[in-house]
Design brief:
mainly alpha; 62% helix; 200 residues
Length: 200
């Protein structure tokens, strides 16, 4: 669990590790099933599920996720990339219906704000600059933003065609990182939040 985190779900570290590993394995298995039902081959479903939850972004296709022009597949990957970039302790709290603890996390709220702001900007940019419809603009924007923030590295479209301003924002998103206690790389939201709080 890279990054600073003070959340505790059990006094014993062995119990914490066991529960978090079960969540990780369970989410991976669930994604395999979803991707298989959505139309992927079993081999591709296993590979993409493993690399999604590990935020590795490796694909069996040269075009990455752009190969699968399926909203169901892409939205499934988006959702699980988002979970992979979330602190696994918060996922545990969510699964045990302790939603107040999830929302009490300043880091998680910042994670949501960064993603939401970037998606709104990109959706408007793509919709106005390309001939893509609103849903496709939103899906591509959401996919790329979460992939960049969590450092997963999947691509669903060539975002360099969105203009220099969008590419510059994409570059900045690479440095954000997901939440501490997630599989995402990057600097981590909590460090940006701490830096911001101590700078004002």
């Amino acid at each position: 669990a890279p990054g600073p985190t003070s959340d505790k779900i059990h006094p014993r570290i062995s119990e914490v590790a066991k529960r978090l590993w079960l969540i990780y394995i369970g989410l991976t298995a669930l994604l395999i099933v979803i991707l298989k039902l959505a139309g992927m081959s079993f081999f591709d479903a296993i590979n993409h599920a493993l690399t999604t939850m590990a935020t590795g972004g490796f694909s069996t296709k040269n075009a990455s996720m752009a190969h699968y022009d399926s909203p169901l597949i892409q939205y499934s990957i988006i959702f699980f990339m988002f979970l992979a970039g979330t602190n696994y302790t918060l996922i545990y709290f969510g699964l045990t219906r302790k939603f107040k603890k999830v929302w009490a996390s300043n880091e998680f709220r910042m994670y949501l704000v960064v993603i939401t702001a970037a998606v709104v900007i990109f959706t408007l940019t793509v919709f106005l600059k390309t001939d893509a419809g609103l849903e496709k603009s939103f899906r591509d924007s959401l996919f790329q933003v979460i992939s960049l923030v969590t450092t997963t590295g999947f691509v669903s479209t060539d975002y360099t065609l969105w203009g220099t301003g969008a590419v510059a924002i994409c570059f900045l998103l690479l440095f954000m990182g997901g939440c501490a206690g997630s599989t995402a790389g990057g600097i981590k939201m909590i460090r940006h939040l701490t830096f911001f709080k101590h700078s004002i």
